[in-house]
Design a protein that fits this description.
This protein is of the alpha+beta class. The protein has helices at 20-27, 33-41, 114-121, 153-164, 237-244, 262-271, 300-310, and strands spanning 7-10, 45-47, 50-51, 63-66, 85-88, 92-97, 144-150, 169-177, 183-192, 200-201, 208-220, 223-230, 276-284, 291-295. The chain has 3 domains: 7-66, Structural Genomics Hypothetical 15.5 Kd Protein In mrcA-pckA Intergenic Region, Chain A (Roll); 85-157, 2-Layer Sandwich (Pseudouridine synthase); 169-310, Pseudouridine synthase.
Length: 312
């Protein structure tokens, strides 16, 4: 199979001095970081006419040429995993992901993922990573809710652009500890936590911009139901913003805090995951341009937790 056409990127002043794989991941969201690193090791990426290495630093104004390798044989295999389909056409698949389901194969989760379920359900295309066919965004394993999957390469490319330019409306429902303000906007930097490799933080003075708009929906026993609208979509963004502003998501084992109230602690234990649900996804269809909107209610475990915390 022949290799895809080269991709040419002209670097900016802001890129100077940064690792080349990180810079290219920002400029080329259609390629995963792992694919870019693999191509660097294979000598498929040049900066200003010279083959780069993993340690190469970006040069302001330099022209970078990426020679993608031919698509690898798909490594994720179809599996008959139940899938709740909200909408499907020749370009899109909209699903309501259950909590506990990993989105794509990764170390520690070689199969049994949403991707395995999708491949059993339909043919999907797009993306350079053979373990992530059709995937344009992710939800954490223990977050439930609406996701869009690209079935065609054209839809994949357009959806990647739309997520990068924040042209997709996304909203989440969360049960959080204590009482947040009636409304709030969290506009911060977002970066890896310097002391915990699995965490992110909004407290640094550098990183990517992250914006979350919070709306208080309902007071509960020791907690609150809130709605969060995303203007950006960074990893763990809502969980980080809520936790670092004093209102962690109930049941969040990574960003949460100890709970003294017995009733609230019992509700968290019985839920067994973070109380976070991706309730809304709305955008212009990547091929037809027609507005599409998908909204779901939280699943039974979330609803049961809400009911228990509503009791007098």
């Amino acid at each position: 199979m022949s290799a895809p056409a080269p991709t040419v990127v002209v670097l900016t002043d802001d890129d100077a001095g940064r690792r080349i794989d990180r810079v290219l991941a920002k400029h080329c969201p259609e390629f995963s970081r792992s694919a870019l690193q693999r191509w660097i090791e294979q000598g498929r990426i040049e900066q200003a006419g010279e083959v780069v290495s993993r340690k190469t630093k970006a040069l302001a104004g330099a022209e970078v040429t990426i020679l993608p390798a031919p698509p690898e044989q798909l490594s994720a295999k179809p599996q008959a995993i139940p899938l709740e389909v909200l909408y499907e056409d020749q370009h899109l698949l909209i699903v309501d992901k259950p909590a506990g389901l990993v989105v794509h194969p990764a170390p520690g989760h070689p199969d049994g993922t949403l991707v395995n379920a999708i491949l059993y359900h339909a043919a999907v295309q797009g993306g350079a990573d053979p373990n992530r066919p059709g995937i344009v965004h992710r939800l954490d394993k223990d977050t439930s809710g609406v996701m869009v999957v690209a079935k065609s390469r054209a839809a994949h490319e357009r959806l990647v652009d739309m997520f990068q330019s924040h042209d997709i409306e996304r909203a989440y429902l969360a049960i959080v500890l204590d009482r947040p303000p009636a409304t709030a906007t969290y506009d911060t930097f977002h970066a890896r936590h310097p002391g915990h490799r699995k965490k992110f933080t909004s407290k640094g003075d550098r990183g990517r911009r992250a914006v979350t708009r919070l709306e208080m929906i309902e007071p509960l026993h020791g907690a609150s139901l809130v709605r969060c609208r995303l203007e950006t979509g960074r990893t763990h963004q809502i969980r980080v913003h809520l936790a670092e502003h004093g209102h962690p998501v109930l049941g969040d084992r990574l960003y949460g805090k100890s709970i003294g109230d017995l009733k609230l602690r019992r509700a968290s234990t019985e839920l067994g995951r973070q109380a976070l649900h991706a309730t809304l996804l709305a955008f212009a269809h990547p091929i037809t341009g027609k507005p599409v909107r998908f909204e779901t209610e939280p699943p039974e475990d979330f609803q049961k937790t809400l009911a228990s915390l509503r009791e007098a």
